[in-house]
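for the writeup, i need someone to sanity check this before i put it in the appendix. the sequnce is what the collaborator sent (i think, or maybe the updated version? ugh). structure was predicted straight from it, no edits. if anything looks off just tell me and ill rerun, i have time this weekend
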Amino acid sequence: MEPTIRPRVKICCISNVEEAKLAIHYGASALGLISEMPSGPGIISEGLIAQIASIVPPGVSSFLLTSKFDTLAIIAQQRRLGVNGIQICDRLQFGSHGDLRQALPGIAILQTIHITGEEAIEEALTVAPHVSGLLLDSGNPALEIKELGGTGRVHDWTISRRIRELVDIPVFLAGGLNADNVKEAIQAVQPFAVDVCNGVRTNGQLDESKLLQFFNRVYGC
């Protein structure tokens, strides 16, 4: 994928309608709405996810973050909640990305690739032809209690850069981003979009001053 000079911004861990409106006000192109996970911050009920998705205006993506690895369960979840995007946080075990695209036309499908080492490059190349985009994060699905996001850790951006150069679809960069490091991250990886959760929060709540600072650093790159 060609480098992006000014990436889009996805604000993850949205916990209520007010946070969604605040993120959109400052320029978020996408929101992350987290359903049941084995660990990590920002988990909200399906009812609240549906409520938030219903107020997202045209032109803004509402991504359901799902830990489900069965395509039939993911399809049913999207149809219940009305989101316009799915972010698969684990590896599919039953069904394929093609099944999802066929069943959910017009719904963007992101596959999370957890950058734990060089093996992530091969995983990304295998998945890329079948999804709308890749989200590169710092979790570890191999742990007994899986980490599928929200770790607050930065991973090896040189691996992310290599993936971005090798694939032909948008790459979202996540993992420990904040106002202090996002400019460096953008210069290092040149992703299509950056994704932030903990880096714009104070005591778990979306912090307007941190949000403004983050957007200023992104737009200033």
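The domain at 8-219 is CATH 3.20.20.70 (TIM Barrel). The helical segments are 17-26, 46-55, 71-81, 97-103, 119-127, 157-166, 182-189, 208-219.
thx in advance!!
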